[in-house]
Structure formats: structure tokens, C-alpha cells
Amino acid sequence: MDTPDAVMARIAQGQERAVAGDREGARRIFEEVWDALQGSGDTAPDPLHIVTLAHYMADVQTDPAEELRWDLRALDAADSLTDDRANEHHSSLSVAGFYPSLHLNVAAARHALGQSIEARHHLDRAAQCCKHLADDGYGRMIRGGIARLRAELDATVGPPGQSGRRAQHR
């Protein structure tokens, strides 16, 4: 981290809990941070805090509709985030690099809710935004997630333009 940020540090603590399998503990930390951000009143919350918190909060939801709500909140906040602000936190960050993952997560949540047209839209956006990702482990992970979700959509609802839901044979 280039510039210390207590809110980002607390969000990171929540994410550490999530990665360790303590989704409930992570959710409690994220809710605490969210409440503090909303309670600041005088100034709008920092878009970097909102993007990061909402992105991670979506991952610890058990209800797909709630997951989508948080994913959309992260995507919306990214539109207000600047590269300058992201670089204050870490010099390697670029807002354009956030969008592939954000759109992929919205696509996955929409797919889980049976919203295949909307899922494909966000999946296509994720793929288009991948040009901003390096060919490193993270970039390959996101590209792989896009390919897997596209294959899953094709297998369950058919390729784009095909109507109706395909029967699943397992």
C-alpha cells in the first residue's frame, strides 16, 4: 500500500476472514465499515472504499439477489473512481482494470438468478474490458472465469440468440 488508509485496512481484515472461510465474521466487519461510511454524512463516501467493500461484501452473501445488489453497487461506484484516487492507495491500480472482475461478478450473479440476457451483457462487457488486464495470474484468472461462465451459459441456455433453456444432462 502506498498511502495508509484505515478504512482499506479494515476492509482487508474482513477479506482475510472471508478467505479463511469465516464468511459471517467477514460480513460483520464489512457491515461495520459500511455503516461507518454511510454515517459520515457531511461528505460522500470515498468511491475506492465503496468499490472495494461492495466487491468483497458481494462474495460473502448467501442470497444471490443480495450478491447482485452488492455487485451492482461496486460497479456503480467504480464509475466515480479516478485513477488518481486509486493510485493514492497503490501505484499499480488502474480503474479500467477493475471492470473485468466487476462485470464478471454481475454476470455470475445474474446467471444465478436466471437472468441470462443480462448475464451475457455483463459477460461481454467483462471480456471487452480484459484488454486492460496484464497477462499475469490475475488476468488469467479473470479471463478463465469469463470463459467458464460463457461455457456454462451456453450449456444451460444455449449460445447467444438461441431461445429457451436447454435441458441439463448430468
How would you explain this protein's 3D organization?
This protein starts with 5 loop residues before the first helix and ends in a 13-residue tail after the last helix. Helix 1 packs parallel to helix 3, helix 3 runs antiparallel to helix 4 and helix 6 runs antiparallel to helix 7. The longest helix has 21 residues. The protein folds into two domains: 93 residues, no CATH class; 64 residues. The protein has 170 residues and is an all-alpha fold. The protein contains eight helices and no strands. The C terminus is likely disordered.
The N- and C-terminal alpha carbons lie at a distance of: 46 Å
Q: Could you tell me the mean pLDDT? A: 90
- 3D shape: globular
Which sheet architecture does the biggest sheet show? none
Overall tally of structural domains: 2
Approximate strand percentage: under 5%
SSE topology string? HHHHHHHH
Counted by DSSP, the helix tally is 8
Low-confidence stretches: 163-170
Q: How big is the Rg?
A: 17 Å
Structural class: mainly alpha
Number of strands: 0
Q: How much helix is in the residues? A: 55-70%
